[in-house]
Structures are given as structure tokens and as C-alpha cells.
Design a protein that fits this description.
Layout lengths: L11 E9 L12 E8 L2 E9 L11 H4 L4 E7 L3 H5 L1 H11 L4 E7 L11 H11 L3 E3 L8 H18 L16 H21 L8 H5 L3 H7 L1
Parallel strand pairs: 1-3, 1-4, 4-5, 5-6
Antiparallel strand pairs: 2-3
Protein name: Ras-related protein Rab-35
Family: Belongs to the small GTPase superfamily. Rab family.
Organism: Toxocara canis (Canine roundworm)
Amino acid sequence: MSAAHGPRDYDHLFKLLIIGDSANYITTIGVDFKIRTITINGQRVKLQIWDTAGQERFRTITSTYYRGTHGVIVVYEVTSGDSFSNVKRWLHEIDTNCDNVQKILVGNKADDPERRVVLEADARRFADTMHIPFFETSAKENINVEEMFNCITGLVLDAKLRSPQPAAGDKGMRLGGSPRRQEKKKCFDVFLSLFFWRRTGFRHSSFYGLYNVMPSFIKLVFS
């Protein structure tokens, strides 16, 4: 007999993906995956954090990694102009693979001002044009890291709470197929009805008026 499972220790479970041209962001664990739980507005949120930033084998993230993602943290290094230039490519990849996902832009290595080449004002201006929050952080000195995680988690949680929850009977909508498929079916049903009534003398039916205004090439089908 299997042991009974205890109550969950969280209210929400979210997957976060860290991508970008910056060294592994979660430097303290040395792996690509981490779980942590934080509290936002009284809600306990468990985060599954996938850190692919700066790792060569993740240079191009496959759609598998994006699947089920709720929030994406795009990281660049303030000491690398190339990493900042690639932010647009990462954002485009996110839009290609995700429909509804929260995003945030993070400039890492803010603790190294002497080597800085990307100005904070320029990065913030870019983030504003993309309508995404922006942080400068230092994973090494733990500067703004907690604030950044709280921000992206809050965005994801707010999006979930604002999204309409599916009703219990929504699954039944699948029986009719998609709206486009239902529309095609309606058109086909009308086609069959017109064909049938034309063959059986439909001049006294409600379809006769429609038949009279049809283009000639369509009337040929029913002749």
C-alpha cells in the first residue's frame, strides 16, 4: 500500500525559464534546474526555475523547454554589448514559442562598473519600448535578485488570477469542433439543402429567394 500524500505546501506552481547570453544565472547551485518557494500577496508560489542562460548547449532553445512556461527571464551582461544586442532575438524566440507568457529583462553583472558597456538608461529605454519590466542585478553580490524573482512571479500570479477559469462543462465544446470548423459545416449543410430542394422543386421553399440572387456559376451546380 502506498503512503498517503500530505497536503500541498503551495498554492500555485509556475515554471520560469531563464535565457540569454549571460553566464549561468543561478551560480550557487551549479545545475540547470532549481525549485524554490516564495510568498506573493499571501499566496505561496512554488517556482520551477530552468536556467539555460549562457550555456552553449542551450544556444537555441527548443520548443520543449518553452512548453508549459509561465514566465521568462531574459538575461544579458552589462559588460557585453553583444549579449544585449541578442536580447531582441531571444524575445522573438519567446513570442514564436509562447502564446501567453510574462517576460522580464535583466542586466546581470551590475557589480562590475569598470567593465560596463551597456548603459542602464539605454537598457531601460529598450525595455519600456517592449513593455516589459527591467532590472539590473548581480548574481555574484545578490543585488536585486530577490526583487527580480518577486516581480516576475507577481506578474505570472496576477495573469493567472485575472484569466477566466474554464467552466466545468467547457470540455463539451470540443464535440462541435473549432468555430472555423463549425462554420465550414454550416456552409456545407446549406449547400446540401439547396441541392436537395433544387432536385425536388424548391421554388416554393424559403431557399428559392437565395437561389435567385446566386451568381450564375454557383447556379450551375444546382441545375
